[in-house]
Amino acid sequence: MQKHFLCRYEDLNEGDSKGFSVGDNSAGMANVFAVKKDGEVFAYKNICPHRGINLEWQPDQFLDSEKALIQCATHGALFEISTGECIAGPCAGDALTPVPVEYTQDGLYVLLAD
């Protein structure tokens, strides 16, 4: 597993989401996003399980209007923030791919397979 810096903990506001490109060009870049809910950070690969496309149309816009669920901008599928499980839409029953998050004094890191 490789550890990749995302941001400082305080740079991700409560109830917000943010997208990141991590990795290096030689090993390939990975697109991930993080959501802070109730002080905890949840991270997932930025890939919709239905179409294999990015979830957002606008940068850092991964949540529905109430900021209660992750939403695919292409077809409106809704996912639980804490589990990544799709609860509505064409991929109901599928789930986003979680990415482990590590908290350090420096900030937030994600752990990705080599």
UniProtKB/TrEMBL annotation:
Superkingdom: Bacteria
Protein's UniProt keywords contain Magnesium: no
InterPro entries the UniProt entry points to: Rieske_2Fe-2S (IPR017941), Rieske_2Fe-2S_sf (IPR036922)
Domain Rieske: 4-110
Gene3D superfamilies for this protein: Rieske [2Fe-2S] iron-sulphur domain
A Pfam match: Rieske
SUPFAM superfamilies per UniProt: ISP domain (SSF50022)
Protein name: Rieske (2Fe-2S) protein
Organism field: Microbulbifer pacificus
Lineage: Bacteria, Pseudomonadati, Pseudomonadota, Gammaproteobacteria, Cellvibrionales
